[in-house]
Amino acid sequence: MAKCKTRRLGILTAGGDCPGLNAAIRSVGKAALGTYAMEVVGIPDGFAGLIENRWRLLGMPDLSGILAQGGTLLRTSRVKPDKYELADGRVTDMTGAAAESYKNMALDCLVCLGGGGTQKNAMNLMKKGGMNVITLPKTIDNDIWGTDVCFGFDTAVNIATEAIDRLHSTADSHRRIMVLELMGNKTGWLALAAGIAGGADAILIPEIPYDMEAVAESIRERDRRGKRFSIVAVAEGARPAKGTISGDDVQDADETHHVATQVGRRLENLTGIEARVTVLGHVQRGGSPTPTDRILATRLGTAAADALAAGTYGVLIAARGDTWEAVPLADVAGKRRFVPLDHDMVTSARRIGTCMGDE
Ligand code: F6P
């Protein structure tokens, strides 16, 4: 049996769920229990469970049969230890309570599976709460600083690509603009990847503020060439460039404030071509993870167990090429990984004539 510095770990999932969380819990847990004979404490409902001192020991049977399952067996929440909302609506700092629970659970380290917010919360628990923490990068947004990729992303790209494929066949039967809004929070990774994979004619991402007239002209041009339809993939965080036509004057009557609704309305006005809008929403986060996400979650999970054994705390277990790296949380917390404007995917999309909204 390998020697290890961690005897007992806690594990929780925080923030929005995504496919691959169960695969990661299974991987950390099996390697910790099997390879290193650690004890594994499962904490439910993200940081809420930690603050409220709720936990149970996990054994091998708990980790069996979950690899292909979506969601998280530990469940999750968006609760932040330093901004905890009390029943009466007041917000208070519960870092102290979280630290008490950590002691009460007799943990040597807390493993937090989460997105950008979780990296920040884990960092606070380490600095203000004195806990040992290790994080894993999960999010369909793929926007965590310090890692090449996050698990959950590949599955979401697959779902979004299938949605674009399906829109193609219905769009082709009509003369229409199909606008599809995809998640991604403040970044465009998901819309860009799915847009390219699905062959969208225009891709609008937050990193490249769009000019609605430029998008309309690209659609008119397609129409002149006899293309009866156009597909526009819009990231939920996409916004118009300053000084260009904005969507403000075509707010959706039902006040959904979805950017796709505004884009659809405006394109219809500018081109005279009927538009239809689809907001894919949480479908992108549901269901079974792809093999790629299962493999990534498993690799990073066992890497986390290795880091726990070595006592390498205060780090994000990041994917780097074919291997992994322990990146200090101090370098990760509070940052966001945006799509670089010269990213290969952006260049490639432009080369094949995809309108990126700015020209
Ligand atoms: O961070 C993941 C994500 O799905 C984002 O893409 C999206 O903006 C957000 O979460 C939705 O959050 P919620 O599930 O809380 O509505």
Short characterization:
β12 and β13 (323-328) form a beta hairpin. This protein is α/β, with parallel strands linked by helices and 359 residues long.
Number of domains: 2
Number of strands: 13
Largest sheet: 7 strands, mixed
> What is the architecture of the largest domain at the second tier of CATH?
3-Layer(aba) Sandwich
Specify the structural class: alpha/beta
**Roughly how many Å is the radius of gyration?**
22 Å
* Overall mean confidence score, pLDDT: 96
CATH topology of the largest domain: Rossmann fold
Which sequence of strands runs across the widest sheet? 3-2-1-6-7-12-13
Please report which band the strand proportion falls in: under 5%, 5-15%, 15-25%, 25-35%, 35-45% or over 45%. 15-25%
Order of helices and strands: EHEHEEEHEHEHEHEHEHEHEEHH
Ends apart, CA distance between termini = 61 Å
As residue ranges, the low-confidence spans are none
The helix content, as a percent range, equals 25-40%
CATH class of the largest domain: Alpha Beta
Bound molecules: 6-O-phosphono-beta-D-fructofuranose
Structural features, described:
With 359 residues, this protein is α/β, with parallel strands linked by helices. It has two domains: 8-152 and 289-321, Rossmann fold; 154-285 and 341-351, 3-Layer(aba) Sandwich (Rossmann fold). Helices cover 36% and strands 17% of the residues. The protein is built from eleven helices and 13 strands. The chain has helices spanning 21-35, 47-51, 95-104, 116-127, 153-172, 189-198, 212-224, 259-271, 291-310, 329-332, 344-351; strands at residues 8-13, 39-42, 56-58, 84-85, 91-92, 109-114, 133-137, 177-182, 202-204, 230-235, 275-279, 315-320, 323-328. The strands form three sheets. Strands 3-2-1-6-7-12-13 form a seven-stranded mixed sheet, with helices on both faces. Helix 5 packs across helix 6. The chain is elongated and about 70 Å long. It starts with 7 loop residues before the first strand and ends in an 8-residue tail after the last helix. The protein binds 6-O-phosphono-beta-D-fructofuranose. The site of 6-O-phosphono-beta-D-fructofuranose has 10 residues, from loops.
